[in-house]
Every structure is written in structure tokens, then in C-alpha cells.
Amino acid sequence: MIRITVLCLLIFQLGFGNDMEWSKTGHRTIGEVAQQHLTGRTKKALKKLLNGQSLALVSNYADEIKADRSFSKFGPWHYVNYPADKKYTEVTPSEEGDIIIGIEKCLEIVKDRNSKEEDKVFYLKMLVHLIGDLHQPMHVGRLEDKGGNDIQLQWFGRGTNLHRLWDSNMIDDYGMSYSELATNLPELTKGQIRFIQQGNIYDWVEESQEIANELYGSVEVGEKLGYAYGYKYWATLEKQLQKGGLRLAKVLNELFS
């Protein structure tokens, strides 16, 4: 019985891992970038709460817990879908929650001195992941096509969709590890970093939606995509990873200041 259980677990983990490949690489890249821009005080606080684990290591926790149905209520926190001609503040938030509601809840619990330490750890890990998701443009897509999931495409002859293209296909085929990606992102001046870190999650969600609107117009249903598309949009993907990391660092530095 034990052998069967272990075998089933291994099969599940292998299948789950394949589906989450970009998520792991992209989120770890964002975590690694953020780690490099933390203040000493923030590093000390994170070391205590995360038991020495890096932001890259915990960055996929919010996806990993999806395997446990008791955490299903957190599913809607990974995205927000609203009309292309509206701002987030102009629509009625989902009763199930969304990425903005999720981030705000995480911040509330982590900064509350009366929160249990185990709750702070859980919501801190969630926060690290959600700031990353906020910078994947198709996580701020349209409701009618489930953030691009219903827009079917071909990527180098393989079936995919617009959401998965940005979640996994482009970054998988680039072939770099998260540490290689983080190391090879564009070098920025202190002024450029401060500019990127301006604003808050309400500004950043509108920025992601603006990119998503462009991406919707970048493809046609059933289109065969390959090198040309990757060449055109790789810089955008890199920028989103870098922005996600720098802004995560800002959020954490402010949280533990």
C-alpha cells in the first residue's frame, strides 16, 4: 500500500511539474531579483519568518498548494479579469476574490503584530507569488476568454493558447534557469530602478492590463507562432520579470521597514 501511494505521488508530482514549468522558472527569477534589492532589515525579518529559505525557493508555494483542495478558495487570487476599457477600480470585485484582494489580505496579515507566526509565514509566501502573477500580463486578461486560455494557437507546431504561451511556452523554449535569467536581465541605474518601483498595486495592475490588451491584438485564433513572435516579445517578458522582482522588493522593504 505504501509503495502504491509513493508511486502515485511521484506520478502526480511529475505531471504537476510539467504544467507549472514557467511558473517555477518565472517566479523564481522574480524572487531572485527581489532578493538582490532587499534592505538589511528586510533580509533579517525574512530569514526569521522563512527559516532561511530564499524568495526564489518559496516563490511557487501558492501554486504547489493547489494540489490540496482545502486551499481551493485561494485559486481566484492568482488573477483578475475585467473589461479592456475599464480600470480595476471601476468594476465590482469578484465575491470570490482576485489578485488585488489577495495581495491586500496578505499585507494585512503579515504586518499585523497580533497575527500568528504560522499565518504570517503562509501569507508571506502567498504575497511573494501573487506579486509575480500580477506582472504576467495574461493574469490581467478578459473574463470572456479566461485570460487568454480560450484563444487557441500553435507554438512551433504544438497546440497551446495565449495564456499558456506567456505562462510557459516562451520561457521554456528560451532554455535558461531562473538564476541565469536573473543574472542576464538588463542592467539598470538607480534612477531607473526607482522609476520602476514607483506606484502601487493599483498602478501595476493597470500596466499589466495595458500589455495584455496589446497581446490580445498580437495573435489570431489558430495562428502558427514561432521565432518571430518570440523575438518580438521576449524583451517584454524580460521586463515583466524584472519589474516583478524590483516591485516585490519594494513591497517587502516597506512591509518590514
Q: Could you characterize the architecture of this molecule?
A:
This protein has 257 residues and is mainly α. It has one domain: P1 Nuclease (Orthogonal Bundle), CATH 1.10.575.10. The protein is 60% helix and 4% strand. It is built from 12 helices and 3 strands; from the N terminus they run H-H-H-H-H-H-H-E-E-H-H-H-H-E-H. The longest helix is centred in the C-terminal third of the chain and has 29 residues, at 227-255. The chain starts with a helix and ends with a helix.
Sheet having the most strands = 3 strands, mixed
What is Rg?
18 Å
CATH superfamily: P1 Nuclease
Based on Cα principal axes, name the global outline. Answer: globular
- Count of separate structural domains: 1
Strand content: under 5%
Kindly identify the CATH topology.
Answer: P1 Nuclease
Number of strands: 3
Q: Helix segment count?
A: 12
* Helicity, as a percent range: 55-70%
CATH class: Mainly Alpha
Structural class: mainly alpha
Spans with pLDDT under 50 lasting ≥5 residues? 1-22
| Distance between the first and last residues' Cα | 51 Å
**Numbering strands along the chain, what is their spatial order in the largest sheet?**
2-1-3
The oligomeric state is single chain
How would you spell out the order of helices and strands? Answer: HHHHHHHEEHHHHEH
The name of the CATH architecture is: Orthogonal Bundle
Mean pLDDT over the full residue set: 91
Protein name: S1/P1 Nuclease
InterPro entries: PLipase_C/P1_nuclease_dom_sf, S1/P1nuclease
Keywords: Disulfide bond, Endonuclease, Glycoprotein, Hydrolase, Metal-binding, Nuclease
GO biological process, one term: DNA catabolic process
